[in-house]
Design a protein that fits this description.
This protein is an all-alpha fold and 190 residues long. Helix content is 71%, strand content 0%. The protein has helices at 25-48, 51-66, 77-104, 109-112, 117-135, 139-150, 155-162, 166-189.
């Protein structure tokens, strides 16, 4: 049995499109939304695996469609909408993979190995410097980093707690990890 969620939309040439010269851009996008939004969401759920993520991707695709300078230049707006949404989904998946790759690395691995007195003192000093780096971060970036890296919460939970999007949480955590790593590496090289 074929899963309807992962089925691509019907070919654009089988769907009658309104001509942008007859209707305003907002009216055209509104009509596309009414007629094809459910199919777009099903299509995207198969690509991103989450209904909420599919809604976010669809919204971004509609915004991009609204921001076209000359929507009449795109002859098949429905096909353009689906292709744009698919590209956004791919971009998001890549960002998630990058986030997972960066956060999967152990920042503190070198501090836990071979605890000689010298290494313990060095580790305590590094943790002190790291603490100062964390304290110097902007509040939401610091909270996102601490909740993710210290308390082990996922991006969605942190986003709910902080009242921001989970993609923003991921950006904050990656930014904080890269910032800490760069400063710690710079100090080690000095």
């Amino acid at each position: 049995m074929v899963n309807a969620v992962s089925m691509p939309p019907p070919p654009a040439d089988q769907v009658a499109e309104p001509t942008p010269s007859d209707e305003s851009r907002a009216t055209v996008v509104e009509r596309l939304f009414r007629e094809h939004n459910e199919a777009l969401i099903r299509f995207l759920r198969g690509r991103v695996g989450s209904h909420n993520e599919a809604l976010e991707v669809a919204q971004e695709a509609y915004v991009r469609l609204l921001s076209l300078d000359q929507p009449g230049a795109v002859s098949y707006l429905r096909a353009f909408l689906f292709k744009t949404a698919a590209n956004i989904a791919i971009d998001r998946r890549r960002r998630h993979q990058t986030f997972d790759k960066v956060t999967g690395r152990q920042l503190f691995t070198e501090l836990a190995e071979n605890r000689t007195p010298e290494r313990q003192l060095s580790g305590e000093q590094a943790l002190g410097r790291l603490g100062a780096l964390i304290e110097a971060m902007p509040p939401k970036c610091r909270q996102s980093f601490v909740l993710n890296q210290i308390h082990g919460l996922d991006a969605a939970t942190i986003a709910t707690q902080l009242g921001i999007t989970d993609s923003m949480v991921r950006k904050y955590v990656v930014r904080a990890l890269l910032h800490c790593r760069a400063h710690m590496d710079d100090e080690r090289n000095d």
